[in-house]
Design brief:
The complex is a heterodimer. Chain A is of the alpha/beta class. Helices cover 35% and strands 26% of the residues of chain A. Chain A has a domain of 166 residues: Rossmann fold (3-Layer(aba) Sandwich). Chain A has eight helices and ten strands. In chain A, the strands form two sheets. Chain A has a six-stranded mixed β-sheet with strand order 6-7-8-3-9-10, sandwiched between helices. In chain A, a hairpin with a 2-residue loop joins β9 and β10. The N and C termini of chain A lie far apart (38 Å). In chain A, 46% of the residues are buried. Chain B contains nine helices and no strands. In chain B, α3 runs antiparallel to α5, α3 runs antiparallel to α8 and α6 runs antiparallel to α8. In chain B, 45% of the residues are buried. The chains are: A alpha/beta, B mainly alpha. At the A-B interface, α2, α3 and α4 of A face α1 and α4 of B.
Chain lengths: 238, 230
């Protein structure tokens, strides 16, 4: 069976700086992978390459069997991306934002789908409000609605909890649980181990540009996650 | 769920981006008000600084007009791309399964609409202040051709400049030398219409504007994908 994401020997350089060094990674269909790592480990760069926003210097990246960057347009249709920025327009309402992205993704008759995703993220009652009047948490929930609007097979989440308070984080947890339960492949970067422990089915630690350690949820108890993470980082320390 | 069409057409995506820019601007009026206030200040400054007699006013009219349009247009071009970049929305556009030229065409058409709105407001005010009749069909054609050329190259260069930290300074530095042929041709053609020159003396300048427009739209279509690639 084709892996949802298959990456081999991925290298990314920015000038003289090598950020990713021959990274290998796979994610099966429906898997929820938490990508952990210290600042500067290359997590965002890796996700940007998976999202086709950045070209690899070397190596092979396939999403659902389609190679990047050769089949970038086809891959983009299979991807939903949430970053720490909401990628939304403040001077449009929630509904107008989703309608705009629905048109970009070529959704025909998108209104029922827009209503469905707004309901899922709990923003149906605020659908006619301008996004600039939303709190950070609401914007992030709307960002998830935008990302799943076209029903992508793969969801990439880059630090989605950044800047959220406890209540907003708990609400985002609930939305992500729901999204993951729909059978999508999810790759999420985060520094918040307690949150990813409750969500992910696999934990990968990215350090110094490669996957330093990987463990399934079954293999590691929640209480051991911090030790697992620290050990992986220590091994890769210069 | 609603079905996904296999390919989002260039036209459909361009239209969506134009709609988004016009709707957002209708709400915020951020860009248009800045461009308009700036254009009016430039006209007033020239009016007081030059303090010209009526005859001389006619001869400098085209130059003052185009300097006003180009300065105000640069302000709009800078803001238009910066708003996409600052909130990460440019990534949102780049993630969509569309021909990336649609982003260029969508932004360029919206920028052109903003520039033409400002010009439509500046025209009557300028006519009153400088006592010059600007409502000549040929002059209006020149303004449209000149604006298309300026926006065509300006949208492309602003999408390059927006990646830099010094984008506010960088855009004029990149844009003004490249847009010089448009400025010269537009000023010459406008001056020709205002001073009542015969059409055969104006036509070469209009041709230059037309050729410039076609070349830069074609160049932008070919290179925009590489310009926005990380």
């Amino acid at each position: 069976m084709t892996a949802a994401i298959a990456v081999s020997r991925l290298t990314k350089r920015f000038g003289l700086k090598t950020v990713l060094r021959g990274l290998d990674f796979t994610a099966a269909q429906g898997e929820f992978v938490a990508l952990l790592g210290p600042n500067g480990a290359g997590k965002t760069t890796f996700l940007r390459i998976l999202a086709s926003l950045s070209r690899p210097t070397a190596g092979e990246v396939r999403i659902g069997g389609a190679p990047l960057p050769q089949e970038a347009a086809a891959v983009r249709r299979r991807l939903g991306v949430v970053s720490h920025q909401p990628l939304l327009y403040g001077d449009l309402t929630a509904e107008e934002n989703l309608r705009f992205f629905a048109r970009l993704y070529g959704l025909s008759a998108p209104e029922p789908r827009i209503a469905e995703v707004l309901e899922l993220v709990g923003l149906a009652r605020r659908r006619h409000d301008l996004v600039r009047t939303y709190s950070r948490g609401m914007q992030q929930r709307l960002a998830i609605a935008r990302a799943i609007l076209h029903d992508p097979e793969v969801l990439l989440l880059d630090e989605p909890y950044t800047g959220l308070d406890q209540d907003a984080s708990a609400m985002l947890d609930a939305v992500l649980h729901e999204v993951a339960a729909q059978g999508r492949t999810v790759v999420m970067t985060s520094h918040d181990l307690s949150r990813v422990a409750a969500l992910a089915s696999r934990f990968d630690v990215l350090a110094r540009g490669r996957i330093a350690a990987s463990a399934s949820r079954e293999a590691i108890a929640d209480a051991q996650l911090l030790d697992f993470y620290r050990a992986a980082i220590a091994e890769e320390a210069p | 769920m609603s079905s996904l069409s296999p390919v989002t057409s260039l036209w459909q995506a361009t239209r969506a981006i134009v709609w988004k820019d016009l709707t957002a601007e209708r709400r915020s009026r951020e860009l248009l008000s800045a461009m308009l206030v700036f254009a009016l200040l430039v006209i007033l400054s020239f009016n007081f600084a030059l303090d010209l007699d009526p005859k001389t006013r006619g001869s400098v009219a085209s130059g003052v007009l185009w300097v006003t349009f180009i300065f105000a247009g640069t302000l709009g071009l800078n803001r238009s791309m910066a708003t996409e970049k600052d909130r990460g929305c440019l990534d949102g556009l780049l993630l969509a399964p569309i021909d990336r030229s649609a982003i260029y065409f969508g932004k360029a058409i919206a920028n052109l609409a903003f520039m033409l709105i400002v010009e439509a407001i500046v025209f009557p005010l300028y006519s009153v202040l400088y006592n010059v009749n600007l409502f000549l069909p040929g002059l209006l054609l020149t303004v449209i051709l000149g604006s298309v050329g300026y926006v065509a190259v300006g949208t492309l260069l602003s999408s390059m400049a927006v990646q830099a930290r010094t984008r506010d300074m960088l855009l004029p530095i990149l844009l003004f030398p490249v847009a010089l042929p448009v400025l010269i041709a537009a000023v010459k053609a406008s001056a020709g219409y205002l001073s009542g020159l015969p059409l055969e003396e104006i036509t070469p300048w209009l041709n230059l504007l037309g050729v410039y427009d076609v070349i830069f739209i074609a160049v932008a279509f070919m290179v925009f994908d590489f310009v926005v690639e990380e």
